[in-house]
Amino acid sequence: MADAEEPKFLFDPYLDWIAGEGIPVVEDFGIDLLKVKTGPWPRIDAKGAAVHLKGRGDYISIFLVDIPPGGKISPQQHLYEEVIYVLEGHGSTTIETVDGETHSFEWGPKSLFALPLNAKYQHFNSSGQERALLSATNDLCLVLNLIHNEDFVFNNSFEFPERQGKGNYFSGEGDFIPKKPGRHMWETNFVPDLAKFELQAWDKRGAGSSNMKFILADGTMHAHSSEMPVGTYKKAHRHGADFHVFSVTGSGYSLLWYEEDEGFERVDWQHGVVFAPPDGMYHQHYNTSDEPARYLAIALGSLRYPFTSEKMGLFSGVDVSVKDGGRQIEYEDQDPRIHGIFLDELKKNDGTSGMTEFIDETPYTK
Fold first, then answer.
1. Banded model confidence at residue 1, pLDDT cuts 50, 70, 90
2. Which fold has domain 13-160?
3. 322 burial type by CB count under 10 A (0-12 exposed, 13-18 middle, 19+ buried)
4. Which CATH class for the 168-348 domain?
5. Whole-model pTM above 0.90?
6. What is the tens place of the pLDDT at every residue in 202-243?
7. Percentages (nearest 5) of helix, strand, coil residues in the chain
């Protein structure tokens, strides 16, 4: 008599599915995605990898899609959301919407787009010499752990016409939805070049900061981009897990710490690097390059559909000081070591501080 199957106990359907896909899996605090080794991924007829950041939380993770020169992935359709950031290469994507239309758009490095939920799509590499590498941040771990039925996720014919948006959303156009600084939104499905997209001023986040929140394919997944001028840094803040932070332009570093910590965790970044601040961990971003530093953050829970009470509270008060019950540390209240570290880093890069308007630097020059 054959032994009975071992009963499932403390089971993670998503991680079990990943193991069955046979692709490389990398896990770390911060990762340079351009250096991740990919492997054959039969599901998409290309190469890929799974990236699990240690601060990713329970809701999202990253798939790398590595398309060879002149190649393409096989047609795909799935019942989970995906926000795609192009790391390198040029190509195009076709999406079939529920009205029978096929939309095609061309992308290149630093393009950002989302796939309408459960729409049929296919990616193509238009270069005959270089690979195309896409970072697909997705909520499959949430969906699969909730449903734990692979066929439901990948072979479901249900249609979501409200997710496709306007026809011009696939061509790089969109709608600006004004709210207030830090909450302005741009609704679209495709941003051709995130590095050149016009952001809006958000002075309360510090030192000439600017920002835009994106509503992509009417999704629950969130994306925003922020920029720091040369020689500046943002105010520290904290929130729940799952914000995946991608460097877009410039270079610098981020410090991360819990209130009780004596020291700091550090992540150095430039285009290609991603990290995720763990739950409740303060973090602060510093531009030490000779150009504005811009980053992209992707999470679950958007400004339109916050999804959790934590996200509702975050988006309502992300720029409110901890002294007033918020999540942000003002410059005058930060650890004095922070500015000293920043000035030392600027010196290494022959940079000049742009923080004199915001911080008294006299004690650091003696």
1. very low
2. Jelly Rolls (2.60.120)
3. middle
4. mainly beta
5. yes
6. 999 999 999 999 999 999 999 999 999 999 999 999 999 999
7. 20, 35, 45
